[in-house]
Amino acid sequence: MFKILKYSFYDLMRSRWSYVYFLFYLLLGLVLLFLNNDLSKAVITLMNVIIILVPLIGTIFGVMYYYNSKEFTELLLAQPVKRSSIFLGQYFGVALSLALSLVIGLGLPFIFYGIFNSDAIGNFSLLLITGAFLTMIFTALAFVIALTNDNKIKGFGYAILLWLFLAVIYDGIFLMSLVLFEDYPLDKFSLIATMLNPIDLSRVLILLKMDISALLGYTGAVFQKFFGTNQGIILSSVMLILWVSIPLYLIRRISNKKDF
Amino acid sequence: MKFLVFILSLFLFSFNYGTANTIEVCGSCNYKTIKTAIEEASANDTILIQKGIYQEYNIHITKPLTIIGKGLPVIDGEDQGEIITIEADNVTVDGLKIINVGTSYTTDFAAVRVVKSENFLIKNLELEKLFFGIYLEKAKNGKVINNTIKGDAVEEFNSGNGVQLWYCNDVEVIGNNIKNVRDGIYLEFSDGILIKDNLSQNNLRYGLHFMFSNEDTYENNIFENNGAGVAVMFSKFITMKGNIFRKNWGTASFGLLLKEINDSEITNNKFEENTVGINIEGSNRINYTDNDFRNNGWAVKVRGACYANIFEKNNFFNNSFDISYNSKLNDNSFDRNYWSSYTGYDLNKDGIGDVPYRPVKLFSYIVNRTPETIILLRSLFIDIIDFSEKVSPVFTPDNLMDEHPLLKPVSHDIH
């Protein structure tokens, strides 16, 4: 597995795309800091970017990589190598290189700007960790989609749809149901609904750091307990890890059963 | 000659009578208790209390006296009741530590109470384990300076206020440090009061609380981490200047709560990290100028029945919501403020954005209706509906906008 991981990783590191990705984040960080001149404001803008763009890029890149390296995968499958280690190795190669581009690309401009001497360091590192998690989650989901769809166009379609659903439509349905059922106690429902969407989950995790004053304005014992104590952060982190491990398990299962 | 001697002796005698004597109180002195010293003292005397612990309560001061503690002597009330009651004009109390005031559900026992007196001076006291701290009742022209009041309040119903003014006029409350009581400073029916340079923190209810008090000023105070910040209710002509309202977090927490306030000035204050910066209800003709709102949940929450208020030259930095309204009506004006979430441009480079800014978002309207939706804050979907509302307002007041949003924060000159 590690050999394949190493191979995929180096392959990707040499490829144009990870440079483009890395340069994009580098530029984004520089422009944000240049325009804002204010670290904490830049961190807020960055949050929007991370929550929307990182999943999108993770999904598309994951699907693309799978389809592009399909022939090589088939060649590997003929060798005496375990199936799960082939796919998991490829997955980790993609996810790690993407996460690395993100962390280094965004980290460099902020380090030069003096993030270590600023009190925004906590928020910023949380942002990067969530970004890395989102990359892992959405690349894994992309691999699951690609594995179940041999048709490239269909696979891309589903992947984009998945992103669109989780990033926009889910929140729309969520909001509508909250407004429709406003007469009922909704705090448990809204917390559970948040947990079931990795994008919402990471958004709330970042909000817990940045907008805690607004979140604490709501009168509800469950919310209070969730937002007011460390329980919120611990629970959200556990859910994020679950969100990585469940698609990973699916990759393993599907790849073991799949007929190539 | 005889006459002259008589006059002279009369003069001397009266002079002698007029000079203030100093009476000392200590464990080995003639006077071992403060009470006896006060009883024996004549008007305008000075009572010097040496270092030590005095178990006394119900000390009534009924003549003009100066009471000074040396090396912070402790008066321990042993939870029996009120400790010092001032019932005369021109009394000074300085440098005492007063502990263990009795708690009662029927009487408001205080560490120091001033009743119907003028020209009092209460300074450098340290109050601990108290019910009420300094209670001024129908008092005038006095000063409460540099006291430290540290309570241990847990519940609102069985705790008292740090400094309470009831039917008082022209009193100055300056440089006090008040924490862990019910209301830090409480004013009821008190006019012409100056509250300055105080630090009021970790109080159960309000850091500062006005009821039916007019023409008062509070400036350069810090209110931090109180149950609900500062409340100004049913009052007129209040000046609020240069105060800092910080970290008032919670479901019913405000930096500043205004209810039925008219004709007041709110200038140069800082509101930082409060759940609600200012909560306004039924308040008219108030000028908000040169204030900073930073990282609040809601910078300003307007609840209704607020007319002719003016918001000018304020800075709004990174608040989750800048302004929130619960109706479509607006009679307040917003002009020349800086909004960190403004996205317009300035083509003629005069520092004023060319596109008006709408500080009320649709989402704040939704959150008012269904509070649980707060969990969707900063989601892409919310940004999309906020944007469409910005383009054509349906739910939010359409005349509510800042026609001249500033591109750079206003720099305020003081501090």
TrEMBL record, chain A:
TM segment ranges? 17-35, 42-67, 87-112, 124-148, 160-181, 201-221, 233-251
Entry keyword set = Membrane, Transmembrane, Transmembrane helix
Is Transmembrane given among the entry's keywords?
A: yes
Q: Know the name of this protein?
A: ABC transporter permease
Q: Which organism is it from?
A: Gramella jeungdoensis
Lineage of source species: Bacteria, Pseudomonadati, Bacteroidota, Flavobacteriia, Flavobacteriales
